[in-house]
Every structure is written in structure tokens, then in C-alpha cells.
Amino acid sequence: GLTKLSACAFKGCRSLSSITIPDIVTEVPESVFKYCSPLKTVDMPGVVTSIGKFAFDGCENLTSVTLSESLESIGDFAFRECKSLTTITIPASVKSIGAWAFFDCTNIEKVYCYATTPPSLGWAAFMRTDRNPNIRGAAMPLFMNCKIYVPAASVAAYKSAAGWSDYAHQIVGF
């Protein structure tokens, strides 16, 4: 069976609509599903601990992602421009979310982050540029109407954590 995915293996694939990562695979490598526009669902059970940079970049029809409960890191640009996602659930095991990880995922309404300690959060992880292409100084925080749900006992920690504090007005407890 499949034990390892190679970087760029399915990049630009035009016929893949759903994928279940086998239980034996521990890493979703760089650009593996980049620009797989027909991809709608991803199920990552088992032992996946990292998602590489650009792994699902440009998967514009992706509507559902189930992340591994073993996941520790989400790479830079991992889900950039996944414009059909409406909800993201980040498991408690996640320790880091890379820069631009969910950049331009313009339809996300809810982010659930189960970690009690805020994961490190890279630059512009939840931002968009629909109004201004100069994202360094002028990008608006993504999902102006989005809520970021975190454990109730951790709300203050998230609101004051580096990176997360930019989204303090969107963070609420569950």
C-alpha cells in the first residue's frame, strides 16, 4: 500500500474529487495537491503530523477537510485560496500554523481551534487581499464576519498571543 506521498505528486490533477490519506502516511508534503481544482473533500485520519507548504494551495472547490488528531504543523500557504471552505477545525495537537496558511479562503465563517495553548501563528494566516493587493501594510484581516472559536478557558491567552491578537475581536470561547 501507499506509505509516502511525494511533493507535487497530484499537482494540477483534474480528476481527483476526494482523497483519504492512508493511516500509514505521516506527512502531507509540499504542493502535493496544489491546484487540484476538482478536489472537494480531504480526510486525514490516523498519523499525519504535518501538512507541507502549498499542500492544498489553489484547491478552490475544497469544501471539507478533516484533519488528523495527530497533526502538529500546518505549513505556509497550505490552504491558500481554498475559496469553498466555510469551516476549519484545527485539532488540539496543532503547535504551529504557518504564514498565509488560510490566506484568501474568503468564505470561511468559522474556525475551531481546540488547542488550549495557542499554536504559533504565522504572518497573514487568516487574511485576504480582495480590496488591496499590498498585503504587507494594508490587508484587512480575513473573514471580517468570521468567528474563531477556542476553548473558553483559553480565550485570554489567544487574544494576547503573538499573531492571534490581530484577530482578538473575532475570538470567542466554546
Quick summary of this structure?
The protein has helices spanning 135-138, 155-160; strands at residues 18-20, 27-28, 41-43, 50-51, 64-66, 73-74, 87-90, 96-97, 110-113, 120-121, 127-128, 140-141, 147-150, 171-173. The protein is mostly beta strands and 174 residues long. Helix 2 (155-160) links the parallel strand 13 (147-150) and strand 14.
Q: Could you explain how this protein is built, in words?
A:
This protein is mainly β and 174 residues long. It has two helices and 14 strands. It has helices at 135-138, 155-160, and strands spanning 18-20, 27-28, 41-43, 50-51, 64-66, 73-74, 87-90, 96-97, 110-113, 120-121, 127-128, 140-141, 147-150, 171-173. α2 links the parallel β13 (147-150) and β14 (171-173).
Relative strand content:
15-25%
Helix content: under 10%
Low-confidence parts lasting 5 or more residues at pLDDT below 50? none
Number of helices: 2
Shape field: globular
- Tell me the total number of β-strands: 14
Distance N terminus to C terminus?
A: 40 Å
**Strand numbers in spatial order across the main sheet:** 2-4-6-8-10
Main β sheet profile: 5 strands, parallel
Counting helices, strands and paired strands, the structural category is mainly beta
Q: H/E series, N to C? A: EEEEEEEEEEEHEEHE
Average the pLDDT over all residues and give the rounded result.
Answer: 91
Q: How many whole angstroms does the radius of gyration measure?
A: 15 Å
